[in-house]
Amino acid sequence: MNEKLRNAVYGLAIGDALGVPYEFENRGEFECTGMTGFGTHYQPEGTWSDDTSMTIATAKALKDNDGKVVLYDMVNNFLDWKGSKDFNCNGKLFDIGIGTSNALDTGLPGTDERSNGNGSLMRILPLAFVDCTDHEIREVSAITHGHKISKDACVIYVHIACRLLAGETIQDIIPTLQYDAPFDRLCKINQLEEDDIRSGGYVVETLEASLWVLAKYDNFKDTVLAAVNLGDDTDTTGAVAGGLAGIVYGVDGAFAQECMDVLRGKDMIDKCLW
Predict the structure, then answer these.
(1) Three-state secondary-structure class, residue 110
(2) How confident is the model at residue 1 (pLDDT cuts 50, 70, 90)?
(3) What is the pTM of this model?
């Protein structure tokens, strides 16, 4: 198995599972210090959600096609997940975004400006591990999220992941992220305070929050816990940040291993990696 891919996906799954019990809770009204169960979705400890499900469904389609992007297979995997046939941690779907659900039901992605949830960003990380074009990244986003902002966010995130995989540091990368609005804060994200960071379901917020915690902390544990403790869309912020933290730090440290010990569905994750 590709060790870097394993670290990225398991980092994402850990961040996701840490955040599941706290989804929609306000910042400062809870404190995540490790894996716990129940909470918002009343799921057992170590349960991951749609973020990991759709990530491994994406990875499985890439694996089955020797690293090539085949949208038809990705869509079928997403439909199997939505129908609780595969890719669900505990065997049954319990969390799905409205935009994602509508797109999979109709075959038509959201394309208006209000359709820029983080539902494609949260699953796009496996594309950093194959030889794909920016156009293909945008096409994979547009299975569910077709607006330019969502597609651009996915391209930016995959590029950052690739640069981290190549050995660059996040502190070196951030000043080079020179984009027009709404991504114009990325180049100075490490200079912002926590009160400047939002962590809702808007794709730009998720990208900003994930890069902010990655830049602020210097280890896997503090990065993923800080991501979750930003509140609101805790599982997705945890997942998106956790995927990058897994690339940078791996998942072999004591805290990550404690999380891995209780993480559910590891056999399902493993079958989707290469």
Answers:
(1) strand
(2) low
(3) 0.97
